[in-house]
User: Which sequence fits this backbone?
């Protein structure tokens, strides 16, 4: 017999939220794994965040994702913050526990690492190697967190506004080096991984100004921008023979822990899912 209480309502709180791809990803998995439930986008203004999280809890939602501008603002509101989320300073996944506690997690760091690991040759590892991260915004913090626990030898951080990169490098401590924006091209020598966490290359934004000449041809290049999937950085990297990973991979992988926590199943990233999201992205870009 079907248990009437096994229906799970989940969603995403954002402002704006209409362009979020998370409803597509989670509803794809709900259908694929025959789960009873739904994932809905909820447009919540910054001033309504506290009441909305409370309402979600009272309405019996299983959990929600958070996107801009709520990821940092929710920290003081939640009952408990997971260690990774605290270190990154942002929450993107909330679980409403049955005993009434609201717990916040950050799955972006996991998503980034999983995206790289599943799209590189078996055995590829960052341990003892150098990486360079372009940008010092919220996305950069999650990427840096992953690189640090991965055991990279040297993590180079560079950002258009030097002071932001310098501050981040200081906060992260040993193994993290600040590189001036004017020296960014030189930071690419001897690295095994280059990650763009800026909005450069996104539709409507200027391309990333970065000279790839010193980048080893074996270095993996990852752009976290996914509109478009093939940014100018990825096109240039591919043309000179570097392995590339597009921004859709991190987006898909960061969704996995939330789905697992809410629906108690480890969802798979399949080509069918990629095709579904790709089709939506192409539609959005028209
Ligand atoms: P997010 O939280 O998504 O990372 P963010 O905090 O607004 O967003 O950060 C955007 C990043 O893109 C920043 O590193 C920003 O550089 P600044 O700190 O100098 O603002 C970077 N960025 C945006 N436009 C840029 C451009 N035209 N050239 C270089 N970097 C740019």
Assistant:
């Amino acid at each position: 017999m079907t248990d009437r209480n096994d229906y799970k309502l989940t969603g995403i709180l954002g402002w704006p939220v209409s362009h979020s791809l998370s409803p597509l990803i989670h509803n794809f998995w709900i259908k694929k794994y025959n789960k009873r439930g739904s994932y809905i986008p909820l447009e919540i203004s910054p001033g309504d965040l506290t009441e909305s999280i409370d309402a979600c809890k009272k309405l019996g939602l299983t959990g929600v994702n958070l996107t801009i501008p709520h990821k940092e603002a929710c920290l003081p509101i939640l009952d408990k913050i997971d260690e990774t989320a605290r270190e990154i300073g942002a929450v993107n996944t909330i679980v409403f526990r049955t005993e009434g506690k609201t717990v916040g997690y950050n799955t972006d760091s996991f998503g980034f690492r999983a995206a790289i690991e599943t799209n590189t040759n078996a055995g590829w590892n960052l341990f003892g190697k150098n990486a360079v991260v372009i940008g010092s915004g919220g996305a950069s913090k999650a990427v840096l967190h992953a690189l640090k626990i991965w055991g990279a030898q040297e993590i180079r951080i560079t950002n258009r506004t030097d002071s932001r990169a310098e501050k981040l490098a200081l906060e992260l401590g040993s193994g993290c080096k600040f590189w001036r924006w004017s020296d960014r091209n030189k930071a690419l020598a001897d690295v095994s991984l280059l990650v763009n966490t800026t909005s450069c290359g996104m539709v409507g934004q200027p391309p990333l100004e970065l000279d790839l000449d010193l980048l080893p041809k074996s270095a993996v290049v990852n752009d976290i921008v996914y509109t478009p999937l093939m940014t100018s950085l990825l096109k240039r990297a591919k043309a000179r023979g570097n392995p590339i990973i597009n921004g859709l991979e991190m987006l898909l992988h960061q969704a996995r822990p939330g789905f697992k926590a809410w629906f108690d199943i480890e969802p798979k990233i399949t080509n069918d899912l990629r095709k579904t999201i790709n089709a939506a992205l192409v539609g959005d870009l028209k």
Summary: The two ends are 46 Å apart (CA to CA). The first strand starts at residue 8 and ends at 14.
